[in-house]
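Lay summary

Proteins are chains of building blocks that fold into shapes. Our project writes down both the chain and a compact code for its shape. Here are two examples, one after the other.
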Amino acid sequence: MIIEHKTVIADVKLVADFRRYILYWRKRFTEQPITDFCSVIRINSTAPAEEQDNYFLLCDVLPEDRILREELQKQRLKEILEQQQQERDDTNFHGVCMFCSEEFLGNRSVLLNHMAREHAFNIGLPDNIVNCSEFLHTLQKKLDNLQCLYCEKTFRDKNTLKDHMKKKQHRRINPKNREYDQFYVINYLELGKSWEEVQLEDDQELPDHQEEDWSDWKEYPVSAVCLFCELQEETVDKLYKHMKETHEFDLLKIKSELELSFYQQVKLVNFIRRQVHQGSCYGCHMRFKSKADLRTHMDEAKHTSLLPERKTWDQLQYYFPTYENDTLLCTLSDSEGDLTAEDPREDDIPVIGEDTAKLHALRQSSILNRLLPRERLTH
């Protein structure tokens, strides 16, 4: 168009549907002269008339062009949201893990959550992704070409690539690669804005005189994952019901009978997560090669509800989650007793910060020496 017709389209990359855009203006140019829509740019204006050229600039300064671009953006967003909803509801998804070749059937979230948990490879929440199959195919193609997904360097063989991604913690995608933008819904929300620009924007404050109206508030599903299998539920109540009926594990009953505080619930959940992740039955201490075998054993032997003594799981180390962004931890409920200290005798004990200016002295005298192995304090 530039060479043959001397027509320039401004910000062409921001046009949501280029084909529809071109067809629209093709029709309009047959109805009226192009100069009615485009700015005329004359180059070589000081040269002789025969050497001068006129170029035509079509841009969104023209109200008609701006409206067209906005309508195309709205239509594209509508199509993307429909596609995303279809993928969210799809139970016929079939995919293979890029790292262990395990096959997954059902919903796409099962495969994405597996790669996040088992291989520390997280491309984002399933509900934020669109055209997931194409996305996974794109990533798989890069791995097949022995290319690191993060730094995008190419290696001589698969084992070298595997070691590199593991040691360098490169099991993630390159956020600067714009090729991936098309697979995230956030990039379709506003005309001409990427996800980085959208996230940097501050929330607009409501005027003081405007009354608070929460009628349009929509609560999004929590997608909490079962402690014993890969099942996800949109509400924590459904998850509790599933664990109770399928695995005979009643977390609410356990909380009530053992009078667990919020933080004790956290430690219990993290303890179970870690045992299951390591393939160990906490009821009989047997170890299994796969989670499927462990799950079958615990269900058949009814060991899911056979909790060990409190001192086994009520430890400092289980304050830390086994999996990053474990939604179940965020849904644990506080009780009135959680607002008071577990031991009433400790209510008035002051907490005094240690002076970190003298690290050597701190390592020798720190109270952490009573809690952690000595060698960990030296790091």
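And here is the second example, written the same way.
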Amino acid sequence: MNKIGADELGQILRLVTDPADRKLASLVCKEWWVMEGPTRSSLRILNLDHLPRLLTRHPNLTTFETPRVISNADLALVAQSYPKLEVFILDCIQIEGIDDRKNFRALQKVGDEGLCAVANGCPKLSKIVIKRCFAGLLGIMSMITSAAHNLTHLDLYTCTLVTDQALEAIGSSSCLLRFLNLRFCTKITDVGLSFLANGSCSKTIEQLNLYSCFEITDDGVSLLCKMRVLEELDLSYIGQLTDVGGQAISTIRTLKKLKFQNVIQLTERTVVALAKNCINLEVLDLCGCTSIAITCIDAFSGHKCMRFLYLLDCSCNDLRGPAFERLALGCPSLESIVVEEFCRERLLQDMQESTVST
């Protein structure tokens, strides 16, 4: 091993991507420990007390991640240390004693000031994940403006300060976004969706998550028909959504994965429209849609792409084995139908009796 030079060792270590393997490699000897640092491209920090030392040891990172509450000063330090950063993941989930006032104040400090520092210092960002933090209009605008030519992935999960103004900034930017997560961004309204639907990102977004965006109605959902390449859409827990919006969504022929969990106003009219129009649909989640007559799943008989159908917490009174059997025989791509466990035995018995009678 002494014959391996520093350059050769560096090339070898760059090929080792598994975190556990890299840790073992760094324990071989002091030389390997020294070389492991500059050859690392990604880092997930659990103890922010060690941040200054780790930044010095790993100077060539392109991916930075922490699940801890990080101060704006530390974010500025990260931005200063890694101008070539491409992936930035901040998820303030691991905070001890969230009910403690001191910790809650710390969580509030993870906001626009630190995000602006990252935006200004890291213009090559292509993936930004800022979950459960107090990101507002200023921080989001700075990030999408700075990384406009590279940004394809934006995750704002449970950023409760995100409003329609933030969506206006996203819609009017030149970002080529393919993924946008607005799950639990509860201040978003139909106005915000209009900015997305009419903006340049309507031509690029492939995955959109609007889970529990309570203020959205049929008017806003109907605007999503303008999104030309949308493949995955989550409209779960949008209480104001009805068949008007559901049938409008069915006109998006590019859809492959669609979730309507607990949208209790949807009926079989939406399901029939989806079966007829969404010829590329592979996954349909209707869990908790209690107003849908399950017999309407016959509409998917003959569908060429449907693979997974989720019917948990739907009305079990309408569930009949022969309907599932017809669907399975008529839809060759179907892999799984998920129903309540207590319904399965009865459904299997129905199908067996149907087979015997024929």
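What can we say about the second shape? Residues 96-100 have pLDDT under 50 and may be disordered.
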